[in-house]
Amino acid sequence: AVMTVVVIFEFYAGATLSKGLNRGIGTILGGGLGCLAAAFAQDVGGIGNSIVVGISVFISGAAATYMRLVPRIKKRYEYGTMIFILTFNLVVVSGLRAGEVMQLARERLTTIVMGFVICIFISLLVFPIWAGDELHDSLTSKFEHLARSIEGCLEEYFKVDTEKENRPGFSLSSCMSVLHSKAKDESLANLARW
Q: Does 125 reside within a domain?
């Protein structure tokens, strides 16, 4: 539960919710499929048990890793696929020790739920910080930077010698900061959806 809090607690409320849901879904899917694979491996028995475990770990790891490359999944569910791989491997490999599979899956899910509830309580009820507000402030400042840059360009072009009213003039660095802010704004927009 403590590790769940450490891992999913984020600065923005939407990011905490996103990581918590991704962790929960990844754990449920990984644990469920891991239990099925472990049960199938136990039914095979003998040396086939280890072979089935190895093949299932390889296939699930490869499939989940390649799913992480899909841009739509990478943007919103990359953390969930990583947790899926981790939980699936943990459950299947511990399935080699018969009888502990269901108890391990239950304990892992319970601790994740406890950590998730703590994080959601803190980030949504105690002092929420919303990514949408930060995105709004960021876009407003970018429009101001662009307006100053355009004003500065026009003043330089027309060589207008009017008094400047405590305004910073043309600034190439502010224009470049606007151009290089796409990744941050996309991240904030994704978190604002949550």
A: yes
CA-to-CA distance for 21 and 115, rounded, in angstroms?
Answer: 12
The answer to whether 78 and 114 have CB atoms below 8 angstroms apart is no
Residue 180 lies in a domain: no
Query: What residues contact 33, with CB distance under 8 A and at least 6 apart?
Result: 60, 88
In angstroms, rounded to a whole number, what is the distance separating the alpha carbons of residues 66 and 58? 12
What's the total number of domains in the chain? 1
**Whole-number mean pLDDT of the chain?**
79
How high is the pLDDT of residue 6? 79
| Nearest alpha carbon to residue 88 among 98, 97, 99, 80 | 80
| 12: pLDDT strictly greater than 60 | yes
**Statement: the pTM of the whole predicted model exceeds 0.90:** no
CA distances from 6 to 66, 98, 116, 156 (A): 27, 31, 10, 52
The string of DSSP codes covering 56-104 is HHHHHHHHHHHHTTSHHHHHHHHHHHHHHHHHHHHHHHHTTSTT-HHHH
Indicate if the pLDDT at residue 31 is higher than 80. Answer: yes
